[in-house]
Amino acid sequence: MLEIIRTIPIEHYVIYSSILFAIGVFGVLVRRNAIVVLMCIELMLNAVNLLLAAFSTYLSDAQGQIMVFFIMVVAAAEAAVGLGILVMIYRNTKSTDIHLLDNLRN
Amino acid sequence: MTSLLMVFTKNPVHSVIYLIITFFLIAGQYVLLNAQFLAVVHIIVYAGAIMVLFLFVLMLLNLNEDTEPRASAMWKLMAGIGSGSLLITFVGAFRGSIQVNIPEQGNPKIGLVENLGRVLFRDFVVPFEIAGILFLAAMVGAVLVGKKENKL
Description:
The complex is a heterodimer of chains A (106) and B (152).
Chain A: H1 2-7, H2 10-30, H3 34-58, H4 63-93
Chain B: H1 3-7, H2 15-32, H3 36-60, H4 73-94, H5 113-122, H6 125-146
Helix pairs in contact in B: 2-3
């Protein structure tokens, strides 16, 4: 295990997580389907999770992995509530286009 | 490396499948990081529960490529510029600024369930209970939101 840590520097994980996070941001910005937007949010949460686990292993400290657990809890709750709201929105507007939901602007 | 596959995630509406593949790859990263319990929990929670939920809603709403709203090219360009500059900012900010002192003998059992459980139930009991309450609130909220409007 220590050989892996010595051969792969932590910067690789940082860059990898940054790429994942940027892809998630791109997805949130560019997609108009609300379900795909929620999925991209999950992707961003996963990028953060991966970075936390990487630092936890590199410092051999278990607290980072506990934080990953709590982020997973929040992600699961968010997905459940978000999809419930999405189904309700679809029932009202017959669409999942997020650009229909700018009523508050007017 | 694996993130090339996630770029393809953006194109079709069955991006759910690609996202599941992505989650499995991230679980593989956890295994490589010696966090086996985390990898198993990740597969169970994400690939097992959340993605099934997403697929279920996707099927329930009967969405396919015809009903998929399209973003304009300018919007795509702006999003690409925004996320690209965010990526450049992250990489530029973190490169060279991280000094990690690797311990000489790391504990290789840190990701196993024994060690994690000990930490979770000794140092993190209160956040654990709060997480339970959060789950209960989310469950009640989801049921309440999912009900018919006139009964609310």
